[in-house]
Design a protein that fits this description.
The complex is a heterodimer of chains A (250) and B (100).
Chain A: H1 3-24, H2 33-61, H3 67-72, H4 92-113, H5 119-147, H6 151-172, H7 176-183, H8 190-207, H9 230-244
Chain B: H1 4-9, E1 13-19, E2 26-33, H2 37-48, E3 56-61, H3 73-77
Antiparallel strand pairs in B: 1-2, 1-3
The chains are: A mainly alpha (250), B alpha+beta (100).
Chain lengths: 250, 100
């Protein structure tokens, strides 16, 4: 088995899976019926991406695990998403801030990955980039509306941005696996992705009249399987059905 | 009944028009609430094109639409009823004309 590729694909798939699950929590609770559908649409796109990626991960692993086995039957420490994705929804503004930060990351990543030397990842990236471009349109539209809105909405999204910003550092913290994937042409170099992300976020924040927080050294290692306490609760809800009724169908 | 206070907190209403495919005209499909036109496009995309219903969206603030008054129906539309000669059904069409 190509262990590095397996782990790398899990990183991508788990980011989409966990974020999609988080967004799903809004269904029935969004501030307006239209937003309920909007958030659910984004969540469904993300789950769709996770399905493609985790199916591929299962094939790379070669032990006969399908998307469901990988999504529903792994343990806490086996999830390799950056921990920004598992941060709580908070208020609508906090959800939007988290979404903008990850949408812009996925957009820059997938745009470059559509020419990956790994044909399967190239195809998944080419399909996903169209979805992600819309996700960012939706989330950045809201961030500008809230940031450049009332005094209260501005204060709330600025505070969410200050709280979530430190977690973005992990997205671009290049480790051995990231370097190996870049050398093989499977993935783009993370410093390139970071520069493009940074410029894009800068423009959005300026339009939203928000201040960009300072980067600080990070101590998050979701990409290595060390998570915040939040992931446990997400998995409990997400995995409950499959674990209580193995192989359940509907 | 909603109070005026509640009304002022509601997002304005937009009418949504969708073009099903190139060459066809935009058809009215419904309405939705949105804070601004860009949000209205996003919502229309999510609400009305999720099953590939369209390739183009128009949104128009409902308040900008001037509608005819239903109580004036008689004076507006009745007079056309007995003028059937306005339908182009009294003309002999030459056989050579195929695609009229």
């Amino acid at each position: 088995m190509n262990e590095p590729l397996f782990r790398y694909v899990l990183r991508l798939g788990d980011l989409s899976l966990v974020l999609g699950q988080r967004l799903g929590e809004w269904v029935g609770h969004a501030p307006a019926l239209e937003e309920d559908l909007g958030l659910a649409n984004v969540a469904l796109d993300l789950i769709g991406q996770a399905r493609l990626l985790l199916t591929y991960a299962g094939e790379v692993e070669g032990r006969g695990r399908d998307e469901d086995a990988i999504a529903y039957l792994r343990e806490h420490g086996e999830y390799l998403n950056a921990i920004l994705a598992e941060q709580p929804n908070g208020d609508f503004g906090q959800t939007i801030v988290r979404q903008v930060l990850i949408d812009a990351f996925q957009l820059e990543l997938y745009e470059r990955m559509s020419t990956s030397t790994d044909e399967r990842l190239a195809a998944i990236a080419a399909k996903s980039v169209k979805e992600v471009r819309y996700h960012l349109r939706y989330s950045s539209g809201w961030l500008v509306r809230l940031g450049d809105g009332t005094e209260e909405s501005h204060a709330r999204v600025q505070s969410a941005l200050d709280n979530l910003w430190p977690y973005t550092v992990e997205l671009f913290a290049e480790d051995e696996l990231d370097r190996l994937m870049a050398e093989q042409g499977v993935a783009p170099r993370l410093d390139e992705v970071h520069a493009a992300w940074s410029a894009r976020i800068e423009r959005i924040l300026a339009e939203a009249t928000l201040n960009r927080p300072k980067d600080r050294p990070h101590s998050w290692h979701g990409k290595r399987g060390q998570h915040s306490e939040h992931l446990g609760y997400i998995l409990a809800e997400m995995q409950h059905l499959q674990r209580a009724y193995p192989g359940a169908r509907w | 009944m909603s109070t005026p206070m509640e009304n002022s907190r509601q997002w304005p209403l937009f009418e949504v028009f969708i073009r099903a495919r190139g060459g066809l005209d935009h058809k009215h499909v419904g309405s939705l609430h949105a804070a601004d036109a860009r949000m209205a496009i996003d919502h229309a995309r999510d609400l009305y094109t999720r099953r590939q219903e369209g390739v183009s969206i128009w949104v128009v603030p409902s308040k900008d639409i001037t509608a005819s008054d239903p109580t004036e129906m008689d004076s507006l539309f009745e007079p056309a009823r007995d003028k059937i000669y306005r339908h182009p059904t009294f003309y002999e069409i030459p056989d050579e004309v195929k695609t009229l």
